[in-house]
Amino acid sequence: MLLRKNVHRLLATTFNNRAILSVRTLCTNKEENVKDKYDIIIAGGGMVGCTLACALGKNSLMSHLKILLLEGSPNQNYQLKPEYSNRVVALNQNTKSLMSSLKIWRHVEKARLQPIRYMQVWDACSDALILFNSSDILDDDIAYVVENDLLLHAVNTELTSSKIRNVQIVYGAKISDYRLSKDDGKIATHNIVKMTNGDVYACDLLIGADGANSAVRKAMGVQYLSWNYDQMGIVATLHLAEESENVTAWQRWLPTGPIALLPLDNSRSSLVWSMWQDDAKRLLKLTEEEFVDAINDALWKQYPRSKGVEACMSWMSSWLKRAGLPDGASRQLPPSVRSIAVGSRAAFPLGFGHSVRYIAPGVALVGDAAHRVHPLAGQGVNLGFGDVKDLTEFLSDAIYTGYEITHHSWLEKYESSRQRHNVPTQIAVDALHRLYTIDLPPVVLARSLGLQLTNALYPIKKLIMSHATT
Amino acid sequence: MAQIRKLMKNHWLKNVIDTPVLSKSITSANAAKTENSTIKEDEIKMFSNQNEDWWNLNGPAKALHSMNAIRVPLIRDGLVQCPYEDRTPTPLKDKKILDVGCGGGILSEALAKIGAEVTGIDASRNLIDIAQEHCQENIKLINKPKYVCTTVEEHLNDHNEYYDGVVASEVIEHVANKELFIKSCVGVLKPGGRIFFTTPNRTRATQILGICISEYVLNIVPKGTHHYDMLVTPNEMSFLLERNNCHVELIYGLFYNFLQNRWSFVNSQMLLFAIQAQKLE
Lengths: 470, 281
Ligand SMILES: Cc1cc2nc3c(=O)[nH]c(=O)nc-3n(C[C@H](O)[C@H](O)[C@H](O)COP(=O)(O)OP(=O)(O)OC[C@H]3O[C@@H](n4cnc5c(N)ncnc54)[C@H](O)[C@@H]3O)c2cc1C
Known about the structure:
Chain B: InterPro entries: Methyltransf_11 (IPR013216), SAM-dependent_MTases_sf (IPR029063), UbiG_MeTrfase (IPR010233). Chain B: Its cofactor is Mg(2+). Chain B: It is a peripheral membrane protein. Chain B: Residues 98-197 form the Methyltransferase type domain. The complex is a heterodimer. By secondary structure, chain A is of the alpha+beta class. Chain A has a single domain (32-468), classed as FAD/NAD(P)-binding domain, CATH 3.50.50.60. Chain A has 15 helices and 20 strands. Chain A has helices at residues 2-13, 17-32, 47-58, 93-101, 105-111, 134-137, 148-159, 215-220, 277-285, 288-300, 307-322, 380-400, 408-436, 441-456, 458-468; strands at 36-43, 67-70, 88-92, 114-116, 118-123, 129-133, 143-147, 167-170, 175-179, 191-195, 200-208, 224-240, 248-254, 257-263, 268-276, 337-340, 346-355, 359-360, 363-365, 371-372. In chain A, the strands form 3 sheets. In chain A, strands 5, 6, 12, 13, 14, 15, 16, 17 and 20 form a 9-stranded mixed sheet that branches. In chain A, strands 1, 2, 8, 9, 10, 11, 18 and 19 form an 8-stranded mixed sheet that branches. In chain A, helix 1 (2-13) runs antiparallel to helix 2 (17-32), helix 3 packs parallel to helix 12 (380-400) and helix 5 (105-111) crosses helix 7 (148-159). The relative contact order of chain A is 0.16. Helix content of chain B is 40%, strand content 21%. Chain B starts with a helix and ends with a strand. In chain B, helix 4 (106-113) links the parallel strand 1 and strand 2. In chain B, strands 3-2-1-4-5-8-6-7 form an 8-stranded mixed sheet. Chain B is built from 9 helices and 8 strands. The interface between A and B is medium-sized, with 16 and 27 residues. The structure holds flavin-adenine dinucleotide.
């Protein structure tokens, strides 16, 4: 303590900040027994954290930096099994191009993935429907369904390849405490990461990729806007009644929440069914046969409808038809489910979260640590990969311009560019969730007309698609 | 400090009046006359103050520090074009750059950091000493700039067609004989090399905002240093450059948000502008 006081006095009396910096570092080192000092530490090796480590490690501008990745869970051996994992994500074109540029995509392609070429979203409370067709909107697939563990394995294959030499990985890392750097404009200290086994690491830039309950975010002490949806997402691997090309993603809005089927192969799809917690608890207790019946009901059952809404919708249909626009009558029939893969049923809590700041001096958040969305639009991890792309670009640009990676200007650019994309997406997804969990006829009418009209108007559809894929 | 400012001011006025003496006039900015031996003591006392002033990121020169964020990329991309995958932290490696009117070395060090062999010249011995001392103290900077107290026309004597790049950032507005200045700057440049200027524009806006600019934006120069008549317009600059066998490649407007201390390139050249030209073979 005395030493530190002296250091501060020194600071006041000399202009040579750099000399002090080394004194200060030395004294923290003594106090804490720093095991190793890194340029960058990434806390959390989920899909986003590992991809970031890979992107930084492969960047020619950052090859001189020492990077450490800390992951809480043990290193798992991955093997491709005939049965699909129940945790899958739909990856958009932007994610695909990021993964391709990092040479990760080829590992996924070699294993397995399923393209989504059509998407049909429809309302259980009316005839409203929207249909996306990839070929007439994007000239490419809308998205790709990939299993989480397969993607993580593909990322790790690149990350641990001989092409990356400056990234160290510690698995089973138990972090006990963070002490973040203070930047009073004159002197920047290091971030300190303490482990439960007594190891202490120091770094210039700490990146929180530690998921929705981010401890890095808590250490930053930033405002975090969050709520629970009182909803759970039930996932399962489904065997379909009939084989088909199966490149359509289906989503039906039930009054209790959306049910979605993402294609896996000719005869299998992955289920993401969001519902109120009580309903979820009930469904989890059903036998697998009863659960399959419940899924088929959710996809096919006629829900009670308001006469007024029906009348307005058919009136709108006729007008659209007269104007030569798609009236939504060309709906496809959803598949029927034969059975579920044994033991593949699981449930996850759903919530909304927005960290008001993504950055602090020497600290940045990526992925679910910074933002959490309802899975209804399949955006979650895609937003995280967008963070990875932008953060890598801004950090490398800082170096290319001769600045430190912790320079606030570049971190601020990262924050504002990501928030400008993420926040509107989160708000839109949240609004959809609210809009569709109401079954009051006027609301049903408004959203149905809106959906019908959106479906008819090509430019709006294109706009939605292009936002969802970037 | 105030005395130095006064001194500098007088010097400028004198320079303006002295214009007929072309070859002798000091054409670089930031020159302070030290003929008068009585001020020596004060000067030494001020020395450290000014040292801190120059290199304090939130001090009076803070706009020049933050300006690096746009002028470094401008110069870098003007001198090298490198595909994203092949970039290194030292893109300007092996490039010889002359920083004319380098002052305390804010831009010189930034360019040296990304690999350039920088020579900084300034007519003020004071400022050269400050620059020299700071770069020696900066342990993180391995590739140090070289500083010389001289004027560009003097420097030309033994550096004809020597540099890959020449920069005069926020300088020409203080120069009395602009023709000679530009001619000399072009003279030290290799054929095919590139020359960069940033300077306030002579417009109604800068005339009105003049006080504001010199006080907030260009704090390093004393009040009253920016004489409206001394400012040049992009057209005049282009004309002078073209006449000296240069091809003007780019003219950008610059904008300084002094609340955020952030610079950006803008379309409007009403306030300040940056100009880039290539010396023809
Ligand atoms: C049911 C459901 C369906 C979904 N469907 C989709 C979809 O179709 N498309 C889509 O884009 N997104 C989807 N998502 C969202 C997606 O799963 C998340 O956005 C994504 O997993 C976030 O990745 P992440 O790496 O940021 O965080 P996480 O996956 O949460 O990873 C955080 C990592 O940090 C580690 N960690 C945490 N704390 C510590 C610590 N203290 N020390 C060390 N390590 C630590 C954890 O072990 C973990 O590996 C869905 C989510 C759910 C719940």
